[in-house]
Amino acid sequence: MNVSIAKNRRTFTLNEKPFFYLADTVWSIFTNASLEEWAEYLDFRKTQGFNALQINVLRQWDASESDIRIDPFLLNEDGSYDYRSLNEAYFDRAEQMLDMAVQRGFIPALVLLWCNYVPDTWAEMFQKGNKMPLDCVEPYVRYAVERFSKFNPIYLISGDTDFPSERANAYYRKALEVVQAVNPDSLKTFHIQGRLRDLPEEFENHDGLDFYMYQSGHNSEFQYMGHEIAGHFYTRPRTRPVINGEPCYEQISYSRNVYGRYSTFDARKAAWQSLLAGGGAGITYGAHGIWSWHKKGKKFGIVEGEGFDAPYDWRDALRFEGAWDYGFIKYLFESYNLAGLPPADIVLNETPEIRAAANDETIVLYIPVNTKVRLNADVSGYSFTTIDLENKRFAVTEVVVSGGKSVIPMHCFEKDVVVIGQRK
């Protein structure tokens, strides 16, 4: 069965039951992982509660060096791709890897056209030449969709793109049309460039666009975009589910060669702020070493790219603590029925860092740094629980109500918390 859009147009269903999208970013898996490594990875992520995998159908332009030399197209004498000659052995192997994932309960989310294959995009400055000719888009996409549709994937038409020109948009338009024709029941979206909040009007109004996917990305100056862009897409005229498809990856360094790496807390904070600001249909995790499928001693970023420091070996990155935190997010969203909860402008503290979402039955707040939280709401009809997100501890919480406003006192935990109120 396909993942579908729920009747509320804010969340997903699978087999007519609520489906919270919890993806991991494994862009490079088709070109970099052995089948044995892939099985090890899948089994571990399954235990953590992940249910979707974001994969680049083509070679990831900034992946780590691979032990495997296999490509989606045959090569010209100069090493460039012959886009008119698909490599069936590559797609045979990819199909086997997707079958392994689906057998374990994962939904593939497949990127068809990463921006480096398309002219005029921001990646042009790093990877010049060897673009896919426009007339090759249809046969490639048709072939891929016809082979992979039996796995009921979600299709990410674009990868990290900025929609810079009509010439570039023609590629994505053609790919979307082909997917619509070959696999009309599949969900489709665009994976857009970090911090971008606008889609070309033709794509935003296209009936083939099923949900919004954005990325708050890895630039240390713009982490507030996690909640800001979620709110932007939540309020668009066309109501669709919203997902932050690439928040800051755990242990990735700040982009643009800025010193520092994102911690477990940073990744957790990006997730919760995105979810409560309007991106409540699901969330995507990333670990620096998994997305590029890095192995110790191998080169990282064969094409000079965005200025990231070295990744961890994939087996070390697989066991970062943040993946468990994201699994816990899914547990809480499913246990408390939080998916698609509308953002709520009820926090009186003068900071956008504290986020709230609420309906008539449930109130949820994310508090990244401990403080007394003041609410412009009478919550006397609710019972509250404070959840320590680092140690997974639950505390009964008393809220003070006076004059139509409420105060949640400082909690006893040292890190970020979620406070959940349920109508009595």
UniProtKB/TrEMBL annotation:
Domain Apiosidase-like catalytic per the UniProt entry, residue ranges: 7-337
Native species: Paenibacillus macerans
Name assigned to this protein: Apiosidase-like catalytic domain-containing protein
Upper taxonomic lineage: Bacteria, Bacillati, Bacillota, Bacilli, Bacillales
Pfam name, any one: Apiosidase
InterPro entries listed in its UniProt record: Apiosidase-like_cat_dom, GH
Residue spans crossing the bilayer: none
Superkingdom, natural source: Bacteria
